[in-house]
Amino acid sequence: MRSHSIDVAVGSDVGKRYSANFDVTYVRERPLLAVVADGMGDGAGSAAAGRTAVETFVGHVVSAADPGPDLLRAAVAAAQDRVIPIGHELRTLAGCTLTAIVGAPQGFWIVQIGDSRVYRLRDGLLELLTTDHTMAWLGAVHGWYPFDSPEAASARYQLTRYIGHGGAPEPDVLGVTMRPGDRYLMCTDGVSDQIGYNDLRAYLGRDAPPQSVVGELLGACHRAGGSDNATAIVIRVD
């Protein structure tokens, strides 16, 4: 793998809707390991699911010399095994999304389960690299209802895959190559639901340190209404 100079910054804003923040993050620059989880709901189960999922996933990955797809899927499975019982114990909803970028000797892996997202800005083109595991995504792809319809808005909260799901679904695992000049954004839906595509591209395209970009993104979320916890991780490849 070619050597890259990677700068990473992370930030989170509680927003105006909730009294607490149920997003959980972990960041390590070398080798790169960036993880974000978004708890479902605003109760004790949400908080416990996010903390437990990130702790379990990171614990499996940091001890691996070569974290490939099999190990990453096993790390998510281990998180499922720990989070699913929490809901039974607390008798409440206990679940979260989990999205990660993991550096390995042969490249980088994206791990995705839920509806947090990974975007990449390369040569002026902003692409969404992940798929939302929601009924809204399926509805938009298959034309069940207009994307901006009330039905679509309701379906945004119907996750088809998440940590804590009784069926213990597997994540998507995607290999990516990082190039000098790339900008990556990992974010919860508190960011992607409040900042449009063109604004995301403009913020990521600025010649500014990742920490400044994170601050601008979170400020924009707050100004847009702060309707959810908002968390962003920005990765700059030089």
Q: Could you characterize what this model shows?
A:
- The chain is an alpha+beta fold.
- It is 34% helix and 26% strand.
- It contains 7 helices and 10 strands.
- The protein has a 5-stranded antiparallel sheet with strand order 1-10-9-6-7. Strands 2-3-4-5-8 form a 5-stranded antiparallel sheet, covered by helices on one side.
- A hairpin with a 4-residue loop joins strand 2 and strand 3 (33-38).
- The chain is globular, with a radius of gyration of 17 Å.
- The two termini are 15 Å apart.
Which helices and strands, and how do they pair?
Elements: E1 6-13, E2 23-28, E3 33-38, H1 44-62, H2 69-90, E4 98-104, E5 107-113, E6 117-122, E7 125-128, H3 135-142, H4 150-155, E8 172-176, E9 183-187, H5 189-192, H6 197-204, H7 210-223, E10 230-237
Antiparallel strand pairs: 1-10, 2-3, 3-4, 4-5, 5-8, 6-7, 6-9, 9-10
Helix pairs in contact: 1-2
